[in-house]
Amino acid sequence: MPMPRPTEDRPSAIENFGWKEGAGVHLVECSPLVPAEEESTVAPKTENSWLSLVIYCDDDKDCADIKHIPSASDVCVKKMSNVSDDYQKWESSEWVYCHFDERGWFSWALSRFARLFPPATEVG
Asked: Could you tell me the residue ranges of all domains in the chain?
């Protein structure tokens, strides 16, 4: 069964996304620095600790660096949760969308078997 195409109100990233040579988009799952049930002087306890983010990097190598901090305009928050390990389901036969303020819409559809591939493998 073919996957549905992006709709006109949410066009394909390939058509209008502000891509640069060597750029990349990463789907990221972030857990809290400190478990929500523990107190910390370093990281405050928050309601929405588990995050699912879509991050754009002008230079894809930057996203692989743990020290890289993307600008707010290059981050799209897909999901926030206060439930442990409750992340966005990235793999879907449906098109998923994320809006970047300065770049427009980015869309993807990943195989339900995407997590079986090694990290940094193109699967969608």
From this structure: 23-34+47-113
